Amino acid sequence: MFRDIRPALVLLFGLTVLTGLVYPLAMTGIAGVLFPSQAAGSLITIEGKVVGSSLIGQSFTGDRYFHGRPSATTAADPEDPSKSVPAPYNASNSMGSNLGPTSKVLADRLEVDMTALRKENPGAAVPVDLVTTSGSGLDPDLSPAALLFQVPRVAAARGLPEEQVRRLVESQVQDRLLGLIGEPRVNVLALNLVLDRAAAGR
Amino acid sequence: MTLNGWIQILIFCAIVVALVVPLGWYMTRVFEGARTPLSIVLRPVELVLYRLGGIDESREQDWLAYTVSMLVFHVGGFLLLYALLRLQVWLPLNPQEMSAVPPELSFNTAVSFITNTNWQNYGGESTMSYLVQMLGLTHQNFLSAASGIVLAVALIRGFSRVSAHAIGNFWVDLVRCTLYVLMPLCILFTLFLVWQGVPQTLGPSVEATTLEGAEQTIAVGPVASQVAIKMLGTNGGGFFNANAAHPFENPTALSNLVQMVAIFALGAALTNVFGRMVGDQRQGWALLGAMGVLFLAGVAVTYWAEAAGSGPLNALGLDGGNMEGKEVRFGIALSSLFAVITTAASCGAVNAMHDSFTALGGMVPLINMQLGEIIVGGVGAGLYGMLIFVIVTIFVAGLMVGRTPEYVGKKIEAREVKMAMLAILILPLMYLGWTAVAVVLPPAVASIANPGPHGFSEVLYAYTSQTANNGSAFAGLTGNTPFYNITGGLSMLVGRFCVIIPAMAIAGALAAKKRVPASAGTFPTHGGLFVGLLVGVIVIIGGLTFFPALALGPVVEHLAMTAGTTF
Question: Cβ of B303 under 8 Å from any chain A Cβ?
């Protein structure tokens, strides 16, 4: 057993340096050269200001923008840091709702959201991703159906023809990789940026 | 369920199977000490480490010395990590000024990472400095994975050597595994992940102003290098709280596919290493076949249950499956597949929140872990876990025909069977025992997030995951309390080392035996009959052990859900 102490210490030290410092630092250096944008977090900058990351969803509440999925992330309560308060799309505290399949809290939340959505677009079927929280609370995407559902609201708020807004949504759909892997989706932030440009250019 | 969903599942399986032979060939060479294409770069590093450590490459150890070396090494790793966690506030590379981690949480976390569990009672982006993430956690991701692999290799040598005393040199195996297997794969994988969008930076969190004018603080960090090893090493500890559901850890469907393959790649290839070392690759394929049967059964159940949706969703006429806690880019099929993979292996990374799965969809991950994660399993741990079940199966087969059982030319006798049973029985003692204690202690019950049977499942899942060294969670449970931190830490220690020690004892006993030539009375262990028997033994032992507990949790919840009850 005592014979093991020297190799244990040397390998612990040597492999710690290799795997815990050399490897991540070298990767940081190489990644920064090969893929500088992704390595820094795929940030979107407009006129020198960071407006977000193309991979991280953000909270939209006004009628003028397409909304992403409900988000269950929280932040520390400013009044009492030991408690937390809802803070949708808090990108420094990712989490899901963790509500189970027999949760009354979940059933009640769905009921409230469904009522609001049915009022917004009566008669249309509500897509499931529009009322369920994502695993990370930061899901940047929605299904095409969930965005088409919101077209009447956004078009009215913007004073744009519905047909034009619908075409904008359709132009942003990313299909499955090779037609097979993943799910068809639209990046909500990217769509809203295109929407801003379309509205400004009119 | 959709045709496209099943095609995606089959594409995944095809890639894993295609990698078995090349990776198996390469790893066999590494552990036989043969030259590899990378030797020209890595051999000098290897020799420096041996010289400094006073390690004689040619001197091998018996099973006890091998195990003791492993334990001493892990004690050192534990102390180092514990110190880093407690002291992070005074150490560099802490741009978000994270404070020192409290003692119970540090204990739980340090145990968690040295045992390859990566159970996390904390949110990474809100608790750990970059230094701890790299020097403490990334580094243990490598070493706990390497130690799992080398222990499996040592057990394989027990089967393959004849009348031998030694089963290899722990230090040499550890170094070669880290340098030749894990490092090169991780370097390639990291660059792939960054290309896909995973950040790799030492800069602080980014302050953004959203389109609607709100402030958004976006946590970044050296993420890709940790994600690479957390998948390949089946560690599973996320850089971020939401783990592989976080778009920065798993940004695209392609990154998701490659991460899933990475979880299974080394574990599946070890079956081929086994086949090669015992001189009959069919033996390896038979083990992988048994794993495949159990795996696909699990995928089918979870995918079906999730696609069918949950009670509250269906009550409102929302179709499209249970999307609560799932990401749009993965959908139902890839979230279900990931959940089964991560619990079949001892990874524990999640790309969807298991707590929000349907009762039956969430039961499959529980069963996978309670079987001891032998379906491919953790790197190394899965193979030695499976070989333990093989010994029991062979014993049962021997009883049926009244003949001393033998496996790959080795007689399986009383000592091996006793050790195998010890390793199998110690796991339920932990996860059933602690669950029983927790659900009657009021402070422990207070941690439960979802009332009703789902709350029981949360506790059962927590102890199962920690005992099985998985690390995934029904994450609603507030695990960061002194009770859960300490009892969970003990479960992880027992779940890891109380399986390893009997497994190594078996390795030592087997290595010493002579080889028995196959005769007409030998039960062939490379065919369908053996695979069926092995699957049967696993299911029966598992079923008898934990079905009562499952009946109280997921089964009751499913019945409640179909009856429209909420809690």
Answer: no
Three-class secondary structure of residue B524 per DSSP: coil
Greatest extent of chain B over all pairs of C-alpha atoms, in Å: 79
SS3 of B118-182: CCCCCCHHHHCCHHHHHHHHHHHHHHHHHHHHHHHHHHHHHHHCCCCCCCCCHHHHHHHHHHHHH
- Sequence length of chain A is 202
Tokens found for residue A21? 């410092």
Model confidence at B247: pLDDT above 80: yes
Residues 151-170 of A with CB under 8 A from B: none
| B377: three-class secondary structure by DSSP | coil
pLDDT tens, position by position, A75-124 = 888 888 888 899 999 998 899 999 989 888 999 999 999 999 999 888 88
Structure confidence at residue B181 as a pLDDT band (50, 70, 90): very high
Residues of A in contact with B216 (CB under 8 A): 52, 56, 58-59, 89-91
Q: Please judge whether A52 and B216 are an interchain contact, meaning their C-beta atoms are less than 8 angstroms apart.
A: yes
d(CA B451, CA B54): 57
Cβ within 8 Å, pair A31-B359: no
DSSP string, B545-563: HHHHHHIIIIIHHHHHHHT
Task: Look up residue B206 and give its amino acid.
Answer: V
The pLDDT of residue B320 is 85
Question: Is the minimum CB–CB distance between B8 and chain A shorter than 8 Å?
Answer: yes
Largest CA distance in chain A: 80
The answer, for B80 touching chain A at a CB cutoff of 8 Å, is yes
Burial class, B41, CB count within 10 angstroms (exposed 0-12 / middle 13-18 / buried 19+): exposed
In tens, the pLDDT along B419-460 reads 999 998 888 999 999 999 999 999 888 888 888 899 999 999
What is chain B's length? 567
SS3 for B221-258, per residue? CECHHHHHHHHHCCCCCCCCCCHHHCCCCCCCHHHHHH
pLDDT value, residue B48: 92
- Which pLDDT does position A202 carry in this prediction? 58
- A2 has pLDDT over 90: no
- Check if the beta carbon of residue A169 is closer than 8 Å to that of residue A154: no
For residue B307, pLDDT beyond 80: yes
- What is the rounded CA–CA span in Å between residue B205 and residue B202? 9
Distance of alpha carbon A100 from alpha carbon A104, whole angstroms: 9
B538-564 exposure pattern, b = at least 16 Cβ within 10 A, e = fewer: beebbeebbeebbeebbbbbbebbeee
Three-class secondary structure of residue B295 per DSSP: helix
